[in-house]
Write a structure and sequence with these properties.
Shape: globular
Strand order of the largest sheet: 1-2
Number of strands: 2
Oligomer: single chain
Structural class: mainly alpha
Helix content: 40-55%
Order of helices and strands: EEHHH
Radius of gyration: 12 Å
Number of helices: 3
Distance between the termini: 28 Å
Largest sheet: 2 strands, antiparallel
């Protein structure tokens, strides 16, 4: 069974107080996600990213791009906010 992919959508511009303008993760968070082995931990992490985006003003294209990334990997997409 494929793993839930990282919330990173390969924009990687850290202009919001150290947070990426697209996925809202910091560099340490991106590194931490890679170490998560259990699927429930990965889903929880994606929920954290969505909460960060809600607080910081989300990148409107992120949900659609991440959903496509998940589909391409054959992974069930976690509940994403409406654009």
């Amino acid at each position: 069974m494929p793993k839930l992919p990282s919330p990173c959508i390969d924009v990687c511009k850290y202009k919001r107080e150290g947070h990426c303008i697209a996925c809202s993760m910091t560099k340490p968070q991106k590194k931490a996600f890679k170490s998560l082995k259990k699927e429930d931990q990965r889903h929880g992490f994606v929920q954290l990213v969505m909460a960060q985006q809600a607080q910081m003003g989300k990148f409107k294209a992120w949900p659609a791009v991440y959903e496509k990334k998940c589909r391409n990997k054959g992974v069930t997409v976690p509940l994403l906010p409406e654009g």
